[in-house]
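If you are new to this repository, start here. Below is one unmodified record pulled from the training split, so you can see the exact layout before writing a loader.
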Amino acid sequence: MRNYRLEETGGTKCLVMRDEAQPTPKPHEIVVRVRAASLNRRDTMILNGTYPLAPRQGVIPLSDGAGEVVAVGDSVTRFAVGDRVTGSYFARWIDGRINAGLIDQLGCTLDGMLAEYAVLDEQWAVRLPDHLDWAEAATLTCAGLTAWNAVTAAEMPKPGQWVLVIGSGGVALFALQFAKLLGCRVVAVTSRSEKLDRLRALGADLVVSTADMPEWGAAVREQTGGIDLVVETGGPPTFAQSMIACALYGRIVLLTIQKGGTVQIPGPVYQRSLATISRLFVGNRTNLEAMLRAISVHRLKPVIDKVFAFDEANDAYRYFQQGDVFGKVVVDGA
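And here is the target side for that same chain:
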């Protein structure tokens, strides 16, 4: 089979295609014929050596992928040959709170999905909704689940309340879609004026161009009465405006701070706010199964920016890193 591995040459990690023997499953494992995989920001951070969790040398990258089961171990009970599956990001984290023993991640410390065949313990996988094609089904493990938990965790916003999303990457667009699914109103903030209509088409009720309005927080608060939930993917450049936009008891889920970045809260903004700032680590398998049930019932379709052929995986990484995406970047199956 063909796969990619992250290998280090001269202190620099690179993506190398290999041809290896097709795997056979151990008693509790399944072998998945991977039909598509997708990239997340953490994958480029792993490649660039800036991810906080050290990857295993020679690991097969990418946490997100989808395919059908082609072989099962003798003791497998959760799946059968022919089932459509995806993996769980924190493979060993089934439910409850995370701890140090559950931090293994597909595509980082465990082999991931950028391969013709992937081997997963049966506990690391979940079934996929039938209405999704392979590219769509390959986008859910990281960005999808992160957005789902940002929107549906403690104090889930009520129908009619305001949710704010930033940018047009995978997490932002999933958060927009999930918020609309819950009956919320959505403000979408983008630095690209050409994306305004596309965000409206996805259901955004108010779209703000930072090119036209760099200091957008007060205007958003005035037009909405205050944001109830901010899914903050911009980090330091947008955080102060997000906090200004918040309702008095708003919530901000702060998902990312790039290496070397510092989040600063202006004193006057802090003094007049009772907003709660929280953090999350993607989610567990139980969260993933709940999200997939909702996606299935509402027949939600993930947004795909571009699909690359399997032998163009390095091009996919380069395209993703340039940053001007609208949705998910997918690598087709080998």
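Two things worth knowing about this chain: Residues 236 and 263 are 5 Å apart (CA to CA). The longest helix spans residues 285-298.
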